[in-house]
Specification:
The protein is mostly beta strands. The protein is 0% helix and 47% strand. It contains no helices and ten strands. Strand 3 and strand 4 form a beta hairpin.
């Protein structure tokens, strides 16, 4: 099993994204509001945008209307900076609009203050 320390827990506050590397692979480390860490390839599956330039946000619900938006999964959605594709961080990076598609993801664990990615 390959594993590597990719950052410290203090490097990524809840609701933030951090670019890092796992070996030669460019990845993003995401931290959700509950303090959990997740790691994905730093490339949108649509047209390859760098996801570290994106946003962690929520998803709109069916109660939303133009100018009045209702959100769920706040801090658990990774939005691509180019075309707004949204990926569920806590559900293996699955695309909200097409859940059969997902980002390449990695296993993550925290030991002491180290965020460790492994496969």
């Amino acid at each position: 099993m390959k594993e590597q320390i990719v950052c410290k827990t203090s490097d990524v506050r809840p609701g933030e994204i951090k670019e890092s590397y796992f070996g030669k692979q460019n990845i993003v480390v995401c931290r959700t509001p509950d303090g959990e860490f997740y790691a994905f390839m730093n490339q949108c599956i649509h047209q390859g945008a760098r996801l570290e330039k994106g946003l962690i946000c929520g998803a709109t619900t069916s109660n939303s209307k133009p100018g009045s938006y209702d959100y769920c999964h706040k801090g658990e959605i990774l939005r691509c900076p180019w075309h707004g594709r949204e990926f569920d961080i806590k559900n293996e990076g699955r695309m909200l609009a097409a859940p059969e598609k997902k980002l390449a993801h990695f296993q993550v664990r925290v030991e002491d203050e180290n965020v460790i990615v492994y496969k």
